[in-house]
Amino acid sequence: MGGGHAHVAVLADWIENGPPPGARATLLTPHPALRYSGMVPGWMVGDHERLRGIVDCAGLAGRAGVELVLARASAIDPDARAITTDAGERIGFDLASLDVGGTGHAAATLGEDPRLIEIRPIERFVERLAQWRAELLAADPAPFVRAAVIGGGAGGVELAFAMRNLAGLETRPEVTLVAGSAGLVPTMSRAVRRKVASELARQEIAVVAQDARFGEGTLRAGKIALEPFDIVLAALGSAAPDWPSEGGLATDPAGFIAVDAFQRSISHPHVFAVGDVAARQDREVPHSGVHAVFAGPKLAANLRAALADRAVSERYRPRFNSLYLLSTGNGAAIASYGPLAARGRWVAMLKRWIDLRWIDTYAGLAGSA
């Protein structure tokens, strides 16, 4: 279930090494392609086309001998070993793996507003932002844009830079980043926070270190009204979908599927889960695409072992430090690696090389290169 970052690695394993003997698999996903979120800011500023940052899940499934069902999982019965799709179809399984991502919770956190566009799910975000930009560019003359970005994590920071440098506009949008009470990139080092703050100031992006909420059509931070805004983008992290816990899978207090070191459900070992929908119980693994990418090959090995009735043995152990590359939207990027930080065009070149290498690897396997 889900064509996420880890499951494309499973499909790649089946293409490169052949499907597990006797296995018949179905990939259930609402989209035939995976939108790589790391390249969305680059699309926003015009560094590459919209279709450049996708992985052809349909092509990978075809090459791997996996049946593709374009639908979304809406319920699971792990005891009866069956799932139900949003179209009402019931699909049985002996072994299940979930890489469906988390859900957005911006509206629940901030309140409803027609200007609000949430980054999750990423495909819906891209569709809505593309439509909004097309309508903006069709106006004559194009109006001056005031944008708010909610969320001070890496995703919110990159969105703020991307909106400030949004492609196609004669006048750069005025951007306010409402980072929240936790501040800018709170999980990163002091050196990174200083570089992010410096770059935001350099690009004249206002920063508000208070939590935001809509009230009577007005975006407020604390008691301060922040209006006017034409568009509000939110990057507040992910929430857990309801249906895994409703189906009886063990979850953590936030509702994410509780898994062991091998990505198996602690209540139903024939169910695996990885990525934003899962929560490791043996150690803390942040919800981040980089961890889903590196967990993918481990998941592939464990699924292969489980299908052969062998003991699973592969654990994803996050590196002591992970490399994060934050695009600043103006041809540069900020690197974060543990306590170290760097900024420059060379960082943006490194990010582009890593992103395109990952995308192109799967494009070659899918036959779409």
Automatic annotation (TrEMBL):
GO terms for molecular function: NAD(P)H dehydrogenase (quinone) activity. Keywords: FAD, Flavoprotein, Oxidoreductase. Pfam families: Pyr_redox_2 (PF07992). Its cofactor is FAD. Residues 63-293 form the FAD/NAD(P)-binding domain. It comes from the Bacteria. InterPro entries: FAD/NAD-bd_sf (IPR036188), FAD/NAD-binding_dom (IPR023753), NADH-Q_oxidoreductase (IPR051169). One of its GO terms (biological process) is aerobic electron transport chain. PANTHER family: APOPTOSIS-INDUCING FACTOR 1, SLR1591 PROTEIN. This is NADH dehydrogenase. It comes from Erythrobacter litoralis.
